[in-house]
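Usage

Read records sequentially. Each one opens with the input sequence:
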Amino acid sequence: MLHSTLKMLNRTEEVLSSTLMICMVIIISAQVFCRYVLQNSLEWSEELARYIFIWAVYFGASYALQKDKHLEITLLRHYLPSPWQRRLVALAYGCVLFFCLYTAWFGGVMVIDIYASQLRTPAIDIPAFWFWLCIPICFALMALRAGLKLWELCLNPQSVLPPTY
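and closes with the structure output:
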């Protein structure tokens, strides 16, 4: 059950991030066409493209954490014996987990404050909390990923460490 749910979550993040990037490219292309060919800019396109980009990046960051594709400084890990390498990687995942939980919590508080203030976006006039929701949602997803990585690393001594490049 958990495995199929995580597999669905992986696919959802991958498709959502890619789809959002495609939408952003289409919106920016339409803006360039309207500005230079039709001599009439779209007021809303830059702001919407920016918000879409932010959502795409945060979903992509969660997906990258699941695939161990984030940047990592591995110099120290190369020179440590194997048991210490595992401890160092576990410490790194623990720090990522703490940071993501902290950011998700305070991102949620920020979204509640923005919702209460009824702040609206300047160009597209949509409630701004919709665009700030990406912080608690995506950092919670990253915390889930880091927690699962830490759990697997601590419970399964045969688990493979993230690759070093």
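Summary fields computed downstream for this record:
- The CA atoms of residues 26 and 45 lie 10 Å apart.
- Residues 82-117 form the longest helix (36 residues).
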